[in-house]
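Forgive a beginner's question, but would it be possible to get any protein sequence you like and the tokens describing how it folds?
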Amino acid sequence: MKYLLLSALLVAGAGLGFLLACRAPGAAGPNGAPSTPPGPPDDDGFTALRRRMVDEQIRARGVRDERVLAAMLAVPRHRFVPEPYTAAAHEDGPLPIGSGQTISQPYIVAFMTEAIRPRPGHKVLEVGTGSGYQAAVLAALVAEVYTIELLPELGQRAAALLAALPCPNVQCRIGDGYGGWPEAAPFDAIVVTAAAPQVPPRLVEQLKPGGVMVIPVGRTNDIQYLLRVTREPDGRTRTENLMPVRFVPLVHGKR
């Protein structure tokens, strides 16, 4: 599969559940309008690299939502990778971010974002913060983003970066993604960035009627598929198979 990719995130770690500050001091709260896509106008040449990334890797493969394309162009991807990999930040593939995890290929971030059909008033849950890049892209498109990371070292680093950019409409938590974020539910959309053996029922329960979840499903060494699950108004679900993929596993925290 030409575009198989490893997505950043969730591996075994402490099942902590505390909130991290992702908002810059004095910034608007999560109920405000979507934040301005982060990144200065002149990123020392990185803007040109992002434009090429969007044109050659994302638009050329069929992503058509102009708002998603604009967010991918605006968010400074190089800020989300470790310094040794900065020069490779816009290449067509995942990169290591530490703790055995990766930042996903640009195309898959854009594809999954487009698949939830983001709107300015939406509230979105991300399961698997990782580098924070997917959360930053979502923050440029929707009103509120809630993001959960199992690994404290990744979650804390991502929260600090999201606050510094800033992304004032993002809230971060360290915890077990299988449980979602019930006190913030229901969500218009959920993006899961690691593969579960099956669709977690507790996440489906946290979707609004008509809400959608994009999630890779399948075991680590088997075929995985990216699914779009829609919660119908009567409570039933409708599932679409979007593409074959390969992601790291979504695991439970320690109990």
